[in-house]
From TrEMBL, chain A:
It comes from the Bacteria. Coiled coil: none annotated. InterPro entries: Bact_solute-bd_prot1, SBP. It comes from Intestinibaculum porci. This is Sugar-binding protein.
UniProtKB/TrEMBL annotation, chain B:
The keyword Ligase does not apply. It catalyses: ATP + protein L-histidine = ADP + protein N-phospho-L-histidine. Its EC number is 2.7.13.3. Residues 341-387 form the Histidine kinase/HSP90-like ATPase domain. It comes from Intestinibaculum porci. This is histidine kinase. GO terms for molecular function: ATP binding; phosphorelay sensor kinase activity; protein dimerization activity. It comes from the Bacteria. It is an enzyme of class 2 (transferase).
Length: 432, 440
C-alpha cells in the first residue's frame, strides 16, 4: 500500500510538472525574445555606411506586426569577426534564433546540423520560395533540404573598356559571348603601343582560373564532394586555355590600377564593387578617363556562373522556431524589405520581382553613368544564369589547397605534370 | 542472498567512482569549451566536429543531475524498504537514466552501464525479470562499447575538444578520463568476484546447515525410539506388577480356598459351601481389581470424559499437529456405551485417522457416527489416495481383533479415498449399567 501511494504521488508530481510546462510554453500572451545575429558593414568587402539602418527598420515593422515578439541583436560585430563570434556562440550553446550565415560557413553549419531544416516550415508556402532566383535559393539548399534562405546576392560581371575596344576596332561583345570570343579579343588587344619593346596594353586583369573553369563548363567536384575532377579532360582543357590567356601578358603582372588607367580591356567585377565604385570619390578619380560598360561574364549564356549569396538561417537549437520563421520571411521574402535592401546595400536582391521592378530600374538609371552601363535586364540575366558553389563541409578547405597548387603550377608552367598529384592530394583530403 | 560487507563496500565505491567520472567528463566539456572560446579557436573546433554541441552549462547541470538521481536511486532501493519492494520498475528507471547520461555526455563515458549492470546483478534474486534486465544491460554494454550509439546519433566527441589543449595538458586530462574508466572496470570485476565468492560461501554454509539439521533429526529419532522403548518397558512392568498384585493374590487365595473345599466337601458339605462362598467373593473382588487395572489403561483422552468429548479433543489435537481437516458428525448423544466399548471405538477411530494421514496422505477426513435400527455405525471416509489392494498389516488386524472382542464388524473399502465401516450390534438398554456385563 505504502509503495503504491509513493509511486502514485511521484507520477502525479511528474505529470503536473509537465502540464504546467506545456501551459507555460503554449501561452499565446507570453512575450518571447528572438535573438538575431548580423554583422556590421557589407558582405562584399565594399564600404557600407549604416548597415543597421535596414535591419532596424525590418525589426521595427516586424515587432509592430507581432507584438508578443521582441527582436534583439548585438551590434558592432565586424564581418571579419562575425564567423568567430558565431562559432563562439554555437559551441557555447547560446546561438541566435535567426542569424546571417557567412558564405564560407554555410557548408560547415549545415553539415554539423547547426541549421534548422526549413522544409517543414516552408510547408505549403513553397510557391513563395519560388520567388527567389533559383541559384540564390540553391545557395541555402542541400539535397533538396532548405537550410537557409537567401538575403543578398552579388553577381559577377565583366567591365569593358569601350574606348580601348573602339580604338582597336573591336565591337562590344554580345550578351552571348563565349570564352573563345573573350580569348580572341584579349589576344588582339595585348600589344606594345609605344614601341619600347614591352607590353603596355592588356586583355584582362583579375580573372581567376576558377572563373575560367566555370566559363568553360568544367566542374571541379561532384555535388557530394566525394570526387575531384581536377585531372579530367574538361578541366585540363579549361586550365590550359586559362594558362594561354595568362601567357598573353608575358611576365608582366597586370593589376586593377592598370584597368583604372585605361590600359586593360576587361576586368571582372562584382555588382557590389560596381555599385560602390560609382559613388564618390571613386567614380571621379577612376572612371572619368574612358567610357565603359558591363556585360555578362563570357560563356554565361551556356554555363552557370558562380554567384556569392548571403543567407539567413534559423538555429536548430532555437526554441522559438515559428516566430523565427516569421522574422526570416520578413528578412528574405518581403518585397518591400528586399527593395529597401537593393537601395541601401550594394549587392542585389534575391527576389526576381524586386530586380525587375521599375524602382530598381530607376535606381540603376540614377547613377549618373548613363542608362546603358548596367541595366536591370542585364543583372536579371546574370542572376538567372548563375549557380551556387557545391555544398560539402570541406569545400573551403580543398578549394584553398587547389587554388594554391594550381596557381603555382600555372606560374611554373607545369600544369600537365602536376595535376594528377594535386588531384590525388585533394581526394585524400576529401576521403579523410 | 546475504550480502557481504566487502560486496557492499565495492558497490559503494563503484557508485562513487561513476559519479566522479560523470562529473569529470561533464566538467571537461564545460572547461574545454571555455578554454577554446578564450583562445579564439571555436571556428576550428566547429570544423572538426560532426555536430554542433549543445549548451555546455546545460550539459553539465543535466549530467550531474542525472548521475545524482541514478546514484540515489541505486542507494535508495537498498536502504529504503518502500523502494525495495518496487524492484523491477526501479531498474527500468535506472536503465532510462543510464541512457540519458550516455546521450547527455555524448557517449564520452559509458561506465554507467557497468554501474547499472552491477545493480541488476546485485538485486538479481529480488527481480522477477532479472534475466531480461541482464540481457538489456549486456546489450547496452555491447552497443556503447562498439560506439554504435555514436554512429546512430552524431556526437561532438570530447577527444576533439581535448586536442585543443597543449599536448601535456591534453595527455593529463585524457589520462584521468581513462583512469576513471579503467578503475570502474576493475571495480566491476572485483564486484563480480566478490559476488561469486559470496554466493559460493553461502551455498557451502547452507550445505553445512543442512548436514547439521539431518544429524539433529536422526538423533531426535533415536531419542524418540529410546523413550518409546522406556515407556513400553515401564508399562509392561506396571502391568506385570498389577497382575502380580491383584490376580496373583486373588488366584493364590482361590487356589487355597478350592484346595480346602476339596478336603471339606466329603467331611462337611456345609463348610465346603461356606468356603466356596468365600472363594466366590474373592473371585468377584479379583474381577473388580482387574477391572480397576484395566481402567488405568484407558486412553488418556477418555479419562473422566465422554466418548464425544474425547474424540473432539483428539481431533482438535490432530488438526493442530497436521494440516488435515477432520469433520465429526456425532449422532450418538443418547447412546451410553460402557468404557471398554468406548475405549475400543476410540482406538479404532484414532488408528483410522492415523492411517489416513500416514498412508493415504489425506487432506480431509469425515467421521460419521449413526444409530441404525439394530446397530450403531461408524463410517470414516478420507480423500487420500487409498490403496488398490487392502493388505491387513498390524494396524488393521489389531483393529479387527479389538472390534471382534466387542462383537463388532469392520469393513475397509476403497471408495473416493479410503473408507472404514464399523457396525456395532445394539444391546438392549445400552444405557443400563448391568446390561454391559454381557460384553465383558
Amino acid at each position: 500500500m505504502k509503495t503504491n501511494r509513493l509511486r502514485d504521488s511521484l507520477i502525479i508530481f511528474v505529470l503536473s510538472a509537465l502540464f504546467i510546462a506545456i501551459i507555460y510554453t503554449n501561452n499565446p500572451d507570453r512575450i518571447i525574445t528572438l535573438r538575431l545575429g548580423v554583422y556590421a558593414g557589407s558582405s562584399w568587402d565594399v564600404p557600407y555606411a549604416d548597415s543597421y539602418h535596414l535591419v532596424d527598420q525590418i525589426i521595427k515593422a516586424f515587432e509592430k506586426k507581432h507584438p508578443h515578439v521582441k527582436v534583439k541583436y548585438v551590434s558592432g560585430i565586424t564581418k571579419e569577426d562575425y564567423s568567430s563570434w558565431l562559432s563562439d556562440k554555437l559551441i557555447q550553446g547560446q546561438q541566435c534564433d535567426v542569424f546571417m550565415v557567412p558564405t564560407d560557413d554555410f557548408n560547415l553549419l549545415s553539415d554539423t546540423s547547426g541549421l534548422e531544416n526549413l522544409n517543414s516550415l516552408i510547408g505549403n508556402s513553397y510557391t513563395d520560395v519560388k520567388a527567389f532566383y533559383p541559384s540564390a535559393l540553391a545557395a541555402g539548399e542541400v539535397n533538396n533540404r532548405v537550410y537557409a534562405l537567401p538575403f543578398e546576392s552579388n553577381p559577377m560581371m565583366m567591365c569593358v573598356n569601350m574606348d580601348l575596344l573602339k580604338k582597336e576596332g573591336i565591337n562590344l561583345p554580345s550578351q552571348n559571348w563565349t570564352f573563345q570570343d573573350f580569348y580572341k579579343i584579349c589576344r588582339k588587344v595585348t600589344k606594345d603601343t609605344d614601341g619600347n619593346g614591352e607590353l603596355d596594353q592588356f586583355g584582362v586583369t583579375g580573372y581567376t582560373w576558377q572563373e575560367a573553369l566555370e566559363e568553360n563548363g568544367a566542374a571541379l567536384f561532384n555535388d557530394d564532394g566525394t570526387e575531384c575532377y581536377l585531372n579530367s579532360e574538361k578541366v585540363r582543357k579549361a586550365l590550359s586555355s586559362y594558362a594561354r590567356l595568362v601567357a598573353l601578358n608575358g611576365h608582366i603582372k597586370v593589376s586593377q590600377s592598370d584597368f583604372d588607367t585605361g590600359k586593360v580591356a576587361f576586368m571582372p567585377m562584382s555588382l557590389a564593387q560596381y555599385r560602390t565604385y560609382r559613388s564618390y570619390p571613386y567614380r571621379v578619380s577612376r572612371y572619368s578617363k574612358f567610357r565603359w560598360r558591363s556585360v555578362p561574364m563570357p560563356g554565361s549564356s551556356r554555363y552557370k556562373i558562380h554567384m556569392p549569396t548571403t543567407l539567413f538561417a534559423i538555429s536548430s537549437h532555437s526554441s522559438h522556431k515559428q516566430a523565427a520563421w516569421l522574422l526570416l520571411n520578413d528578412l528574405t521574402l518581403d518585397v518591400h524589405n528586399q527593395q529597401a535592401l537593393f537601395k541601401e546595400s550594394s549587392g542585389s536582391s534575391v527576389l526576381k520581382k524586386v530586380m525587375t521592378s521599375k524602382t530598381t530600374q530607376k535606381i540603376l538609371k540614377n547613377d549618373n553613368m548613363g542608362s546603358q552601363v548596367l541595366t536591370s535586364q542585364t543583372i536579371n540575366q546574370m542572376m538567372t544564369s548563375s549557380s551556387s558553389s557545391p555544398h560539402f563541409k570541406k569545400y573551403n578547405e580543398v578549394m584553398e589547397l587547389a587554388n594554391n597548387e594550381v596557381t603555382l603550377a600555372i606560374e611554373q608552367g607545369s600544369l600537365d605534370s602536376d595535376l594528377p598529384s594535386i588531384e590525388s592530394r585533394i581526394e585524400n583530403m576529401l576521403t579523410k | 542472498m546475504v550480502k557481504g560487507k566487502h560486496l557492499k563496500q565495492t558497490r559503494i565505491l563503484l557508485i562513487l567512482i561513476n559519479f566522479i567520472a560523470v562529473l569529470y567528463n561533464a566538467s571537461l566539456y564545460l572547461f574545454a569549451t571555455h578554454y577554446i572560446v578564450l583562445h579564439h579557436r571555436s571556428h576550428a573546433l566547429l570544423e572538426r566536429l560532426d555536430v554542433i554541441p549543445g549548451n555546455p552549462v546545460q550539459l553539465y547541470v543535466m549530467a550531474v543531475a542525472a548521475a545524482s538521481i541514478l546514484c540515489l536511486a541505486i542507494l535508495a532501493r537498498e536502504y529504503i524498504p518502500q523502494f525495495t519492494e518496487m524492484g523491477d520498475s526501479f531498474i527500468v528507471v535506472e536503465l532510462l537514466l543510464m541512457i540519458a547520461i550516455l546521450v547527455i555526455l555524448h557517449d564520452s563515458y559509458n561506465g554507467v552501464i557497468l554501474l547499472v549492470f552491477m545493480d541488476i546483478i546485485y538485486h538479481a534474486q529480488d527481480n522477477k525479470h532479472w534475466l531480461l534486465l541482464m540481457i538489456a544491460g549486456f546489450a547496452s554494454l555491447l552497443f556503447s562499447n562498439y560506439g554504435v550509439l555514436s554512429q546512430v546519433i552524431d556526437f561532438p566527441s570530447l577527444d576533439i575538444y581535448l586536442a585543443f589543449y597543449p599536448h601535456r595538458s591534453a595527455t593529463m586530462l585524457s589520462f584521468f578520463r581513462y583512469f576513471f574508466e579503467s578503475f570502474n572496470i576493475v571495480l566491476f570485476i572485483v564486484f563480480l568476484i566478490t559476488y561469486l565468492m559470496d554466493s559460493l560461501e553461502e551455498k557451502q554454509h547452507l550445505q553445512q546447515e543442512m548436514q547439521m539439521v539431518n544429524q539433529v533429526n536422526s538423533e531426535l529419532k533415536n531419542y524418540v525410539a529410546l523413550s518409546e522403548k522406556i515407556a513400553e518397558d515401564r508399562e509392561r512392568k506396571r502391568i506385570a506388577r498389577e497382575i502380580h498384585d491383584t490376580l496373583g493374590h486373588a488366584l493364590t487365595g482361590i487356589a487355597a480356598g478350592v484346595d480346602a473345599c476339596i478336603v471339606l466337601i466329603d467331611v462337611s458339605p456345609e463348610r465346603a459351601k461356606t468356603q466356596l462362598i468365600a472363594v466366590s467373593k474373592v473371585v468377584r473382588e479379583g474381577i473388580g481389581d482387574v477391572r480397576r487395572s484395566l481402567n488405568k489403561l484407558r486412553p488418556g483422552a477418555l479419562e473422566n470424559k465422554s466418548l464425544k468429548a474425547g474424540l473432539t479433543q483428539m481431533i482438535k489435537e490432530y488438526e493442530e499437529l497436521s494440516k488435515v481437516k477432520i469433520d465429526l458428525y456425532y449422532e450418538w448423544n443418547h447412546v451410553d456405551l460402557d468404557n471398554t466399548k468406548e475405549d475400543v471405538l476410540f482406538r479404532v477411530i484414532q488408528e483410522s485417522i492415523t492411517n489416513s494421514v500416514r498412508h493415504g496422505h489425506a487432506r480431509h477426513i469425515e467421521i460419521n457416527m449413526f444409530v441404525e435400527k439394530d446397530h450403531y455405525t461408524i463410517i470414516i471416509q478420507d480423500d487420500g489416495m487409498g490403496c488398490e489392494h487392502i493388505v491387513y498389516g498390524y494396524g488393521l488386524t489389531q483393529m479387527k481383533e479389538r472390534l471382534a472382542i466387542i462383537g463388532a464388524k469392520v469393513e475397509f473399502m476403497n471408495i473416493n479415498g479410503f473408507r472404514t465401516l464399523v457396525e456395532i450390534p445394539k444391546l438392549k438398554g445400552e444405557d443400563e449399567d448391568d446390561e454391559s456385563h454381557d460384553c465383558r
